[in-house]
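Re: [ENG-882] Designed sequences occasionally contain unexpected residues at chain ends

Forwarding the minimal case from QA. C-alpha cells:
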C-alpha cells in the first residue's frame, strides 16, 4: 500500500485528494494547521496530522510520525498555499515574506525532509500544486504570482536533482478552483488597497473574483477534478512533468509564450475590469 502525505489538506484540493485516494486504497496522511477540519476523513482511514509547513519542528514531527508508523513515504503532495493579491506597492514586505514562506519555502522544506527516505528506497513521487499563475500574471496578482513562478522553478530544479534516484516530480497547474482560495485572495486584494490610490480598482477587481467564485464560473473547476489529476500523476508509469486542468489553462499558458507582453497586460486587465 502506497503511503501519501498531503499538505494543506483541511479544505479544497487537499481535502478532495485525501478523500479520493483513501477511497482508492492508499494510506493517506493529511497535514494542515486546522486539524479539526479533517476529522470527517478519519472515517475513510485518513490520518490527520497537525502540520504547519512554515515551521521546521512541525514539519519534522509530521514526517517522523509517518516514518515511525509506516517506515516510508511514497508520495508527497505539496499542496499548502494561499493567494496574497494586491499591488506590489501596497502589500507589506512582511506579508510578502509570509506568502513566500508558505507557497515556496513550504514546498522546499517538505521536499527536503522526504527526499532522504525516497532516495533510500530509490523510488518516490513529489507532486506540487502550482498554478496557471506560475506562467501567466493576472492584474493585481502581485506576490501570489511571484510565489508561483518561484514554485515552477523550484519544482523544475528538484525534478532534475533527483531524477537519478528514481524519484519523479510533477507540477499541477490549475486555473480557478472552487475553494476558499478565491475569497481569501479577494479579501487580501481589497484590504491591500484601502486608503490608497489603488482603493477603487482593488475593490472592483476583488468584487470580480468574488462573483466568479460565487457564481461558479466556467473558468472555475471543482477541486474533485484536480484530485483526479493528482491520482493520475501518482499512478502513471511515466508521469508528465506538468498537468493542466482545462483547455483555458492550456490556452493561457500557450498565449503567454506567443503573445507580446503589452498585449497580455491589456488582455489580463480587461478580463477583470469591465
Amino acid at each position: 500500500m502506497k503511503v501519501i502525505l498531503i499538505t494543506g489538506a483541511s479544505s479544497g484540493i487537499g481535502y478532495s485528494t485525501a478523500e479520493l485516494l483513501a477511497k482508492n486504497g492508499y494510506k493517506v496522511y493529511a497535514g494542515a494547521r486546522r486539524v479539526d477540519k479533517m476529522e470527517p476523513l478519519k472515517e475513510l482511514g485518513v490520518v490527520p496530522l497537525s502540520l504547519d509547513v512554515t515551521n521546521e519542528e512541525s514539519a519534522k514531527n509530521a514526517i517522523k510520525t509517518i516514518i515511525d508508523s509506516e517506515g516510508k513515504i511514497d508520495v508527497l503532495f505539496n499542496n499548502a498555499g494561499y493567494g496574497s493579491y494586491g499591488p506590489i506597492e501596497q502589500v507589506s514586505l512582511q506579508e510578502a515574506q509570509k506568502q513566500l514562506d508558505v507557497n515556496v519555502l513550504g514546498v522546499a522544506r517538505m521536499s527536503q525532509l522526504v527526499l532522504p527516505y525516497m532516495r533510500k528506497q530509490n523510488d518516490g513521487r513529489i507532486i506540487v500544486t502550482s498554478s496557471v499563475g506560475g506562467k501567466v500574471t493576472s492584474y493585481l496578482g502581485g506576490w501570489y504570482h511571484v510565489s508561483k513562478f518561484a514554485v515552477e522553478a523550484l519544482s523544475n530544479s528538484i525534478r532534475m536533482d533527483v531524477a537519478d534516484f528514481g524519484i519523479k516530480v510533477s507540477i499541477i497547474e490549475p486555473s480557478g478552483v472552487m475553494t476558499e482560495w478565491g475569497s481569501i485572495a479577494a479579501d487580501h486584494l481589497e484590504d491591500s488597497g484601502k486608503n490608497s490610490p489603488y482603493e477603487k480598482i482593488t475593490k472592483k477587481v476583488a468584487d470580480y473574483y468574488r462573483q466568479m467564485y460565487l457564481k461558479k464560473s466556467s473558468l472555475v473547476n471543482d477541486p474533485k477534478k484536480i484530485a483526479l489529476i493528482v491520482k493520475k500523476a501518482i499512478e502513471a508509469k511515466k508521469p508528465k512533468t506538468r498537468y493542466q486542468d482545462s483547455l483555458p489553462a492550456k490556452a493561457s499558458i500557450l498565449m503567454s509564450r506567443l503573445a507580446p507582453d503589452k498585449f497580455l497586460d491589456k488582455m489580463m486587465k480587461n478580463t477583470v475590469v469591465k
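QA comment: On inspection the terminal residues look reasonable. The CA atoms of residues 68 and 128 lie 24 Å apart. Proposing we downgrade this to a documentation issue.
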